[in-house]
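Late entry, written up from scratch paper. The run itself happened at the end of the previous shift, but nothing got recorded in the book at the time, so transcribing now.
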Amino acid sequence: MSTRKIIKIDEELCDGCGQCVPGCAEGALQIIDGKARLVSEVYCDGLGACLGECPSGALTLVEQEAEDFDEEAVREHLAKLERKVEPGTAHSHHQEKLACGCPGSMAQALQRDDACCEDTDDTDGVQLHSKLSNWPVQIHLVPIQAPYLQDARLLIAADCVPFAFADFHRRFVLDRIVLIGCPKLDDANAYVAKLTEMFKHNNLRDIEVLHMEVPCCSGLIQIVKMALEASGKDIPVKFTQISIRGEVMAPAFR
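Output as recorded:
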C-alpha cells in the first residue's frame, strides 16, 4: 500500500453509459449493476486516461492510500477478459458481471400498460404494441439470476423465428420471459452452460422452445434438453416448430 493517485467514481453522477470502459487500457473499469466500478486498485495506473471519456463528470483522480499498480496483474486481467469461456463451463457470477461493458445489457423488467395492448388486427389501423416484458433477450446477455426469471414462464426462441412468424408477439411473447439465440452460429456449449445455471437457480414454471423447421435449428432442442438434464430440474417443456413460410407446426411435449 502507498499514497498515490487513483480513480474515484461518483455513483450519483454515473449513469452507466459505459464510455469509460474502453477508455481504460488496463481494464480497471467495468459496468456492474448499471454503474461504473473500479474492479481492482492494482489495475488503475492513476494517469486518468479515462477522465475525458465520462460525459457526466463522474470520474476524478484522488490521492489516497491504495494498492500499488501491478503491470503483471494487468496483463493477466486483460488476458482473462479476452479469453472465451471454455466449452461446457458455466459462467461464474463474477464473470457474468464483467461479460459486457454496455449499459444497454443491464437487466430490466419492462412495464406494459395492458389496457393499451388489446390490439386484435393490424389491418384496422390499430397500432400494435410490443408484448416484451424483459431486457436483454440474447441468451449470452441475460443474467443467470435476473429478478424477472423467478416464477417465470420462459420462451426460448431461435432468432429467425420472429422474422418468419408474423404474429410472434401476440401468439408467443405475452406473459413470458424471452430468450433468443442461434444454435448454428453461436456457441452451443456456452448456451448449455448458461441455461443449466439459469434452470438451477430460478423456479421456472414452464418453458416453450420455438425453432425453425430447418435441420440446423433443431440444435436448440438439444441445447435445452442437455441443460435441463444437467440442471437436475423437472420443468415442463413444449417444443414448437415454425416453418419458413411462417406456419406453426405441431408442438411436441417433453
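The helical segments are 20-23, 71-82, 93-98, 161-164, 168-173, 188-201, 219-231.
(Scratch paper discarded after transcription.)
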